[in-house]
Amino acid sequence: MPVLNEERHLRTSVRHILRQDYPGELEVVIALGPSSDRTDEIAAELTAEDARVRTVPNPTGRTPAGLNAAIAASRHPVVVRVDGHGMLSPNYIATAVRLLEETGAANVGGIMHAEGENAWEHAVAAAMTARIGVGNAAFHTGGAAGEAETVYLGVFRREVLERLGGYNVEFIRAQDWELNYRIRQDGGLVWFSPELLVSYRPRPSVRALAKQYRNYGRWRHVVARYHAGSINPRYLAPPAAVLAIAAGLLGAVFTPWTLVVPGGYLAGIVLGSVPAGRGLSPGARVRIPLALATMHMSWGWGFLTSPRKLARKVVAARPPAPEPSR
């Protein structure tokens, strides 16, 4: 578990791991980035309360480096990736281990079940689980079990991670996409199953959501540059929408009819938010179009403006030797 400024959810996330309905041994290794909140203090309390929890330092604060450090410090043949704001369902680990055996997969994963705690977060959660928001990604919208390009978080065979050199530390974001692509190129199977569920807490503000999705877009473009054939039309839709809307707005200076493009997009997300908002409060429903536009435009802008200097090295870095736990 790589963590940075996760005081809000860390204790609950770890509690969901320790309460797993799993008959075998398990350990929780938390890679501590340089947090500016109470994350380190909470982690120290967790290690004092349960011997199965320990920490390793992650001075860079970057997710792939933290993951590699935690993996290197762990000792079991199955590696479960967890985030500091993700809550595993009660039988997540037991189900994942069973699926690894049944399918022969190198990595299995399930649904990123976004759940909010206020009107804005409920709106973002609805947008993240709607096809109009994220396309046909099974780990967002659900679907039948089967082979997948990538999955949320992941439960891995350690031998596969060691053979491939772990996470590529150059990929500050999109490290999951990049690793799963290498797994598939190596002949391994990445398997999605709706039986696996992780509750996820969305970003708490428009600004935070925009930053998250801009980074998703810019780093997904990096993956596309370095791994030819890893892109598909779903990933090109947001940048195409940004370009079309920009062209429509600029063209309106000379020809007003070009406003039909941004107008059509606005109408589309408003109409699409209606089924996505079923069962939510009025306050959450009216925020869904804003959440959708933030996700689409930020992802597309990030993809279009992704600097070529990002992740110049393609090879994965071997997981470092274990650091002493604190």
Short description:
One of its GO terms (molecular function) is transferase activity. The chain has 326 residues and is an alpha/beta fold.
Question: What's the average pLDDT?
Answer: 89
Question: Given the structure, what is the number of helices?
Answer: 14
Shape: globular
Kindly, what is the distance between the CA atoms of the first and last residues, rounded to a whole number of angstroms? 15 Å
Q: Ranges with pLDDT <50 over ≥5 residues?
A: 314-326
Secondary structure: helix percent: 40-55%
Series of secondary-structure elements, N-terminal to C-terminal: EHEHEHEEHEHHHEEHHEHHHHH
Q: Care to count the β-strands?
A: 9
| Biggest sheet character | 6 strands, mixed
Rg, Å, rounded: 20 Å
Percentage beta strand: 5-15%
Structural class: alpha/beta
Protein name: Glycosyltransferase family 2 protein
Organism: Streptomyces sedi
Keywords: Transferase
Pfam family, one: Glycos_transf_2
